[in-house]
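Working notes for the structural subgroup meeting. M.R. asked for a predicted model of this chain before we commit to crystallization trials. I am recording the input and output together here so anyone reviewing the notebook later can reproduce the run.

Input as submitted:
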Amino acid sequence: MQTGLPEKHMAVEGRNNVSACMQCHIPATETLKDTRVFSAKIHRKHFAEKKLQCTHCHDIENDVSFTLPGRKSTGAPDKETLDVLPELTAEWAKSPYLSAIHAAKDIACASCHGNAVPVLDDKPTKETCLGCHKSYAELATKTPGLDHPSRNPHNSHLGPINCTVCHKSHEYSAPYCMNCHKFPMHPIPGGKKFRPPKKVQGEQVP
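Returned structure, recorded in token form:
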């Protein structure tokens, strides 16, 4: 019997074969958006709720293929990638990080990393992020300085730097500005609670 099925799940012939699942559990249409939303929903449920592993559904062979029955391979990941992939997917499915914030909105790994199995240290480009978040100018309207309007992380003297300088997917995010400055800032999604240091009387804040 295929493990991970709900108790009240309808009877399925050949439950030990993932092909049986895919007779029903496929996107309603084969558009890229629908496929990725479906991928996000089913991976989140399997990892966050059922705590299943990649090999529960996927056929995997090091440096050769990463597939579902009857589907095209999504790459040929090496052993190092495959060893860490379950941990990263589990973080994406349920964690305090930015990856899980995306997962909760049905944003699949492929939406940021492309359709192939991600490689280690693969960071989305600024253009990928702005494909959804539109522009620095629009983001700046949401993050004006808390104590002064010009102290805006999306409209700073650094210019349009890569989003991943501040926004991390599988670890805590942190405002890059705070490496030099001490003024208060908006909480950053996927970041630890930031408590700016108290200003000492007479201190010049950068």
